[in-house]
């Protein structure tokens, strides 16, 4: 398939029910940070965007949501795919983005560069969808906060070393701040801005 | 089930763009517990005040695998509950139940079920006035600012005035709560009896206000504290008598007038809880009369 026709294929086969199932997974994971959810969708976005991230895009993005893409994703067939399948415009301004997508191995920009919302309307902030290598085998991080009974432990591989620092900065501005959806393969995990992240001492 | 089986309108009534808009609002609401997210509330085929906000939230999250329960003041068999349940049966062909335990989504008007909710369940509240400060400050621009600055002194003054006039905090429903130490939230007009159930609940709680166009949420395991004073701590309602039908104590009771000579009985407001206790053999002092009548 050529670059041009890539944009027209690979949407949901059953848009209503697949979007609903994907959203429920997202909702449950956002309500219980650190819990790993799974999206079994038939979505095939243009490479290098991961299928789960593609399903999240089609579940949540439309003409009301400007999307920011990394330089690599911008150069792929993804802008056309998002336009055709979701009607979502791509923006280069991080501050205007409702959603941002970062593919695997790409550099994660500092979350503070994205829309943080305002003190009156903290919901007007960017949701970052970031693909990483795996949820297991990395440096253990301890999660605490709303949605977590005592604490949760995750060990993601593929987040920058600076990430715990980024995240504690993000939390300091509460209620402003970004929310994060991490994707690895067919799985996802959510970190809303309320979740406190600690590096586990060995 | 495929989309083609439901040809006359989209699954769960709302169009997909509306669902996406509501879903985005729900995710932000969960990320900022107790904060009211504005959303583009749609006209629904029922009047405002009949739970259009709750219906839109339910429609946006509902799927073919869900089991829906709808209660109105705790009862499964009142007009509002019956019509909303029938609505979702018609537009989503969804399985319905009256049993709290079996439901995955419980839409409620003004009560939280007596039975403890579990992790797989979502409670959707119908909210008339989402802004707890609205009757103290009518301007939305001002209440926004007050939430932004965490300026909740006015609410404490209101509770204090209650004490000054009545000797105790006279607010009995829609009793304001503070969520995760940050946002003051209206728990919708549930009796204050239900406030402690919101604290560290296993279930996700979503609130939809259709006319006022707001969605807010309390994630599971989230601190929900009723506002009070050290010398006037928060207290829930207590009842002197158990339920007249099932004999339950420590539940919320409704008063039912029996005749025009002052006869009255107090029964569980949660009908499912009451029926379950009755079928398990529990008896209140008027239970025999009910069976005789049947």
From TrEMBL, chain A:
<protein>
    <submittedName>
        <fullName>Carbon-phosphorus lyase subunit PhnH</fullName>
    </submittedName>
</protein>
<dbReference type="InterPro" id="IPR038058">
    <property type="entry name" value="PhnH-like_sp"/>
</dbReference>
<keyword id="KW-0456">Lyase</keyword>
<dbReference type="InterPro" id="IPR008772">
    <property type="entry name" value="Phosphonate_metab_PhnH"/>
</dbReference>
<dbReference type="Pfam" id="PF05845">
    <property type="entry name" value="PhnH"/>
</dbReference>
<dbReference type="GO" id="GO:0016829">
    <property type="term" value="F:lyase activity"/>
</dbReference>
Automatic annotation (TrEMBL), chain B:
<keyword id="KW-0479">Metal-binding</keyword>
<dbReference type="Pfam" id="PF06007">
    <property type="entry name" value="PhnJ"/>
</dbReference>
<keyword id="KW-0456">Lyase</keyword>
<comment type="function">
    <text>Catalyzes the breakage of the C-P bond in alpha-D-ribose 1-methylphosphonate 5-phosphate (PRPn) forming alpha-D-ribose.</text>
</comment>
<comment type="similarity">
    <text>Belongs to the PhnJ family.</text>
</comment>
<keyword id="KW-0004">4Fe-4S</keyword>
<keyword id="KW-0949">S-adenosyl-L-methionine</keyword>
<keyword id="KW-0411">Iron-sulfur</keyword>
<protein>
    <recommendedName>
        <fullName>Alpha-D-ribose 1-methylphosphonate 5-phosphate C-P lyase</fullName>
        <ecNumber>4.7.1.1</ecNumber>
    </recommendedName>
</protein>
<keyword id="KW-0408">Iron</keyword>
<dbReference type="InterPro" id="IPR010306">
    <property type="entry name" value="PhnJ"/>
</dbReference>
């Amino acid at each position: 398939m050529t670059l041009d026709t890539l944009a027209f294929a690979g949407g949901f086969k059953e848009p209503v029910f697949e979007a609903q199932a994907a959203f429920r997974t997202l909702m449950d994971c956002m309500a219980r940070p650190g819990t790993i959810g799974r999206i079994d969708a038939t979505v095939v976005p243009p490479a290098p965007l991961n299928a789960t991230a593609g399903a999240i895009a089609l579940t949540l993005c439309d003409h009301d949501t400007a999307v920011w893409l990394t330089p690599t994703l911008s150069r792929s067939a993804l802008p056309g795919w998002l336009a055709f399948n979701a009607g979502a415009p791509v923006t280069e301004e991080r501050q205007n983005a409702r959603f941002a997508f970062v593919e695997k191995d790409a550099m994660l920009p500092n979350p503070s560069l994205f829309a943080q919302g305002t003190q009156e309307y903290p919901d007007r902030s960017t949701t970052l969808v970031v693909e990483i290598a795996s949820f297991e085998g990395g440096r253990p991080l301890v999660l605490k906060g709303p949605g977590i009974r005592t604490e949760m432990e995750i060990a993601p591989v593929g987040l920058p070393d600076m990430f715990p620092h980024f995240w504690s900065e993000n939390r300091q501005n509460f209620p402003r701040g970004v929310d994060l959806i991490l994707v690895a393969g067919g799985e996802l995990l959510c970190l809303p801005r309320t979740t406190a992240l600690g590096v586990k001492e060995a | 089930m495929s989309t083609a089986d439901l040809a006359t309108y989209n699954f769960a009534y709302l169009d997909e763009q509306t669902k996406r808009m509501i879903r985005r609002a729900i995710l932000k609401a969960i990320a900022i517990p107790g904060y009211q997210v504005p959303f583009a509330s749609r006209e629904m085929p029922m009047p405002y005040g009949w739970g259009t906000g709750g219906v839109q939230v339910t429609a946006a999250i509902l799927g073919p695998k869900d089991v829906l329960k709808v209660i109105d003041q705790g009862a499964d068999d009142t007009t509002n509950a019956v019509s909303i349940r029938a609505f979702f049966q018609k537009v989503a062909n969804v399985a319905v139940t009256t049993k709290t335990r079996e439901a995955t989504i419980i839409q409620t008007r003004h009560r939280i079920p007596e039975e403890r909710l579990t992790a797989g369940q979502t409670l959707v509240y119908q909210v008339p006035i989402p802004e707890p400060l609205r009757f103290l400050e009518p301007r939305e621009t001002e209440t926004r600012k007050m939430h932004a600055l965490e300026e909740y002194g006015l609410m404490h003054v209101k509770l204090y005035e209650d004490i000054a006039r009545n000797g105790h905090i006279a607010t009995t429903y829609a009793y304001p709560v503070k969520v995760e130490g940050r946002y003051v939230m209206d728990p919708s007009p549930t009796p204050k009896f239900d406030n402690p159930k919101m604290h560290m609940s296993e279930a996700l709680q979503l609130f939809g206000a259709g006319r006022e166009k707001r969605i807010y949420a309390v994630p599971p395991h989230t601190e929900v504290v009723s506002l009070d004073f050290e010398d006037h701590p928060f207290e829930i309602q207590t009842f002197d008598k158990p339920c007249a039908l099932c004999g339950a104590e420590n539940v919320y009771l409704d008063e039912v007038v029996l005749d025009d000579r002052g006869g009255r009985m107090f029964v569980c407001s949660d009908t499912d809880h009451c029926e379950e206790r009755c079928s398990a053999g529990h008896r209140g002092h008027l239970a025999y009369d009910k069976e005789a009548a049947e």
